[in-house]
Amino acid sequence: MTVVEGVSVRETAVRTLRAARAATGQLVGGLGTAFQALGVLLLSAVAAVTAPAGVGLLLAPLVLRALHALARRERERLARRGVDIVPPDPPPVRLRSALADLTTRRELGWLVRHGTLGFLLGLLGLLLPLCAVRDGTFPLWWRLVPEDATTTSIGVGTAHTWLDAVAALLLGVGWTAILLGLGPGMARLQAAPARRLLAAGPDTDLSLRVAELSATRAAALDAHATELRRIERSLHDGAQNRLVSVTVLLGAARRMAARDPAGADELLERAQSAAEQALAELRSVARGILPPVLADRGLAGALSGLAADCGVPCRVEADVPERCAAAVEATAYFVVAEALTNVAKHSGAGRASVTARARGGRLRLRVEDDGRGGADEDGGSGLTGIRRRVAALDGTLRLTSPPGGPTVLEVDLPCGG
Predict the structure, then answer these.
(1) Which residues contact 316 (CB under 8 A, 6 or more apart)?
(2) CB within 8 Å of 258: residues ≥ 6 apart
């Protein structure tokens, strides 16, 4: 029990550190666009103040183009961080049309929030790690600083003894605790205005949704055709060849039965072995169509079986109180199976984890490993097939795999299929 609790504490600490690192990266990345937003906001204020003199009217097209370009850049930045924002229709750039355009007004609202609160949060995301390192390591080099130099990063106190230096260390621990505890929440708060105001509004033309559904249905047909070709190849190259071999061996054994009984027995043994191999391959194909373990043990048990067969140590947390639709469970099973295969073959990971939770009519999967990262959908690792399977059920997939790791695959599926 103590060992299990120790592993749990260690894994929790690792997850907390990774979440804080990701949050810091998002906050610092948002600081860049927030600084630009502050510049566009100041330019907008200048245009508004000088509009009566006519200068603002000349600046208005420049402000609108800068606003739309910055909003587009923020959507792309968040998409790289796994936050998918469906863009609205291209907003107008003519002043009269822009003043009446809902998208432009929403982007202006985002500009105000991101250029103020987003800028402050990004600045905190940059300064907190620096302050934590500076104060946390102060006892190592405090004797090298001038006697009248301040002890802490906030400019308070002067170190004259080891006790003063340790006090700075405690402040560094406090900065670290703030970063670990509040960093992810700060990152979400910084991204919240973009999630709410830069996405397509509720009155957006339904053609966007129709186009998206058409794309997902096309992906479903492609995935279905790919699966049929896989089954056909498995039957043709595997079981069919085995059965042909059985037929040939049985014919040869029948001809040899009278003149060479010993040779005929050997051929019959080979035919029996080939028939057993064909049966095993047929069972494998049948399991590939719809794994029977899903019907026998449910999704949680099936995922535990996949984790047990994984080439690296894998932990499973499954909270699926009710059964989902068969197609959803099958897709979830294949997603995790393919993801764990990639972990074992390509990641160089020492540990992996699978989390499955069903809440509010949605099934959410998360597969994480501590490998080298750098996963690429174009690298032949099966990620394209996973995305097509997920899109076929109108689900979403997010992949985060920076160089050096970790790799996190998140899938959101409707429970009802």
Answers:
(1) 300, 303, 304, 307, 353, 354, 355, 356
(2) none
Task: Provide the 10 A C-beta neighbour count for residue 155.
Answer: 7
Band of pLDDT at residue 4, cut at 50, 70 and 90 = very low
Amino acid in the structure at residue 358: A
Q: Where are the alpha helices (DSSP H) in 115-206?
A: 119-136, 138-141, 162-197
* CA-to-CA separations, 257 to 215, 272, 275, 375, 385, in angstroms, rounded: 61, 16, 20, 58, 51
Q: Token pair of 118, please?
A: 């987003």
On whether the CB atoms of residues 184 and 21 are closer than 8 A, the answer is no
Pairing type for strands 314-319 and 352-359 reads: parallel
Cis bond before residue 406 (omega within 30° of 0): yes
The label of the residue with tokens 């183009």 reads 65
Q: For the segment 348-371, what is each residue's pLDDT rounded down to a tens digit? A: 888 888 998 887 678 888 998 888
- The answer to whether residues 299 and 356 touch, using CB atoms and an 8 Å cutoff, is yes
Can you tell me the distance from the alpha carbon of 289 to that of 285, in angstroms, rounded to the nearest whole number?
A: 6
Q: For residue 110, name the pLDDT band (cuts at 50, 70, 90).
A: very high
pTM for this one? 0.50
Backbone torsions φ then ψ of 94, nearest 5 degrees: -80, 140
What residues have CB less than 8 Å from 249, skipping those under 6 apart? 267, 268, 270, 271, 274
Could you tell me which residues are beta bridge partners of residue 177? none
**How would residue 286 be classed by pLDDT, with cut points 50, 70 and 90?**
low
Q: What is the DSSP letter of 366?
A: E
Give all strands of the β-sheet with 352-359 in edge-to-edge order.
Answer: 314-319, 352-359, 362-369, 407-414, 396-400
The rounded percent of the chain whose pLDDT value lies above 90 is 10
Please tell me the distance from the alpha carbon of residue 318 to that of residue 303, in angstroms, as a whole number: 8
CB 208 within 8 A of CB 200: yes
* Closest of 305, 318, 396 to residue 358, by C-alpha: 318
Query: Residue 399 and residue 407: Cα distance in Å, rounded?
Result: 7
* Structural contact between residues 201 and 89, judged by C-beta atoms closer than 8 angstroms: no
In this prediction, residue 7 carries a pLDDT of 44
pLDDT attached to residue 111: 92
